[in-house]
Amino acid sequence: MKIAVFLAKENFSASDQKQLAKLGQVSYTKDRKALSLNQLLAHAKNADIIVADPDNFGGFEKAKPLLTKVIKTTPKLQAVCLASTSFGWIDLGYCQKRNILVSNVPGYSRESVAEHAIALLLCQAKNFF
Predict the structure, then answer these.
(1) What are the φ/ψ torsions at residue 30 (nearest 5 degrees)?
(2) Tell me: the pLDDT tens digits for 82-123?
(3) Cβ contacts of 56 within 8 Å, gap of 6 or more
């Protein structure tokens, strides 16, 4: 089984890396920088599973069409694991038609969201805007 991870190896603990390696051949990207379509396609070539981070796909705003192209050109693909809580940057209808499982990370960055909300409330209370 081939797993194409669109995150750097350093983002995973040694234990996580071992667990992934038990599933098959794992390839990681060098970092989280946006990749060209050709780089995305080359990295995902022949993948059975894709672990996708929106940063490698140009951010949430640009990711959906690029991820869709990658999925469409990966005939053996069985699953896409999103490194976010959001499903808005993947074509769920297309994945459903192809019986591709899609998962996310529920509760990802929950503390940061709460901190940001409190900071915005404080800014509003002090007429910062």
Answers:
(1) -70, -40
(2) 999 889 999 999 999 999 999 998 777 778 888 989 999 999
(3) 6, 7, 29, 32, 33, 34, 35, 40
> Which range of residues forms the domain containing residue 98?
2-125
The total of structural domains in the chain comes to 1
Q: With a cut of 90, say whether residue 35 has pLDDT above it.
A: yes
Token couple for 104? 């996310």
Give the chain's mean pLDDT.
Answer: 94
Going by C-beta distance under 8 Å and a sequence separation of 6 or more, which residues neighbour residue 78? Answer: 48, 49, 100, 101
pTM of the model: 0.82
Q: Could you tell me if 95 and 102 are in contact, meaning their C-beta atoms sit under 8 angstroms apart?
A: yes
With beta carbons less than 8 A apart as the criterion, state whether 40 and 56 touch: yes
pLDDT at 122: 92
Output the domain CATH number for residue 6.
Answer: 3.40.50.720
The CA-CA-CA angle for residues 58, 60, 64, to 5°, reads 85
Residue 10 burial class via C-beta count within 10 angstroms: exposed 0-12, middle 13-18, buried 19 and up = exposed
Distance CA 104, CA 52 (A): 10
